[in-house]
Amino acid sequence: MNTLAQPQTIMIDGVPLKDQLAKAERRKQITAFLLVAPLLVFIIFTFVIPIGNMLTRSVDNPRMSELMPDMVESLEEWDGKELPSEAIFEVMFEEINRNIETSTIGRVATHVNYNMAGARSLFLKSKRKFKKISGPPYKEQMIAGDKRWGEVRTWRIIKAVSDPVTAAYFLNAVDRSFDAEGNIIQQPEQKRIYVTLFLRTLWISALVTLLTLILGYPIAYLISTTPPRISNLLIIMVLLPFWTSLLVRTTSWIVLLQTQGVLNDIMVWLGVLSEEGRIQMIYNLNGTLVAMTQILLPFVVLPMYSVMKTIPLSQLRASQSLGANPVITFFKIFWPQSIPGIGAGGLLVFVLSVGYYITPALVGGASGQMISNQIAFHMRSSLNWGLAAALGTILLVGVMALYWLYDRIVGIDNMKLG
What we know:
Elements: H1 17-57, H2 63-67, H3 69-75, H4 86-101, H5 105-113, H6 119-129, H7 138-145, H8 152-160, H9 168-173, E1 176-178, E2 184-186, H10 194-225, H11 228-239, H12 246-257, H13 262-270, H14 285-308, H15 313-321, H16 326-354, H17 358-363, H18 371-380, H19 385-409
Antiparallel strand pairs: 1-2
């Protein structure tokens, strides 16, 4: 059966209505894109590019290729079974001398030292010894200057750290490393610190999140159920810490918690403690937990309050008018509707806790340090940016995995901010 084609509606200017609607929709999409373009550019430059740079640095290993390119090229042909040939020794001699002239030998020594203890002394000692070498044979004279040049293990490690792309940083970040034969081995016991720090970071973050939820829920409930005159004052008190520097708030805990601090003085004055029995409440895990809980408490109160404020109080009154006591009313009516705020506040505090740095650095001591402190150390002091990037990448992946787990168990759609 033949059907008649519907005629197109033609506007007064001769352009079909369908085309004009498509043009208007396209113009609307372009306008919307231009409005969000500044935010998109901001996110790219402050979030996407830095994270991409971190991911690249965690496997990028260009230093040896930049500072000793001829040596890297010559070692590619070496099988690693016996000592390199005289030609490779000569290349190494020339490369070290060139780096001595350009004052970059320290960078080479530091880079190799990340994987071979004592490598820095090897290169700096060779800096002095090589002045006596005027010509071939280089192999015998270099070994005579330092016997470590005569060990196959030294050359294997130098070859391993010369690869432009390496997994060594990630292995180091989980307390593993390559041996001279290229096998993955566990670090010596005195160097196994990063796995412990990762576990401690997760434990502290989870405990701080739990403490803030326990302390913050009654505060949010009180603010959401009191008259505006009182609730506004309570909200100001919750926001008040944001008007004070984080450094000042952290330092105030040092004054309060130290052995000769305010709290110990009060307990000694009351007779609870003796002068010799003062409690060490700072520069340990306890100090980190107390300070972080107080500092992060507003971040859990505000999301919970914003959700609780949307719960109609008429439902609570209706429940009680039907015979339910306040406890049953709370757990049957109020609690289920406040769970999305608990999820939002808890997730926010946990993510902030995982990357916290200033507070553990000031009040944590040895037992209260977190993985962020080691990342900062390698960025500022040891200048091992590759290891810092690897630690940061593992932390990022771990947080994303926990976020995915939260979504699978609870559902991210059930998380609300009001």
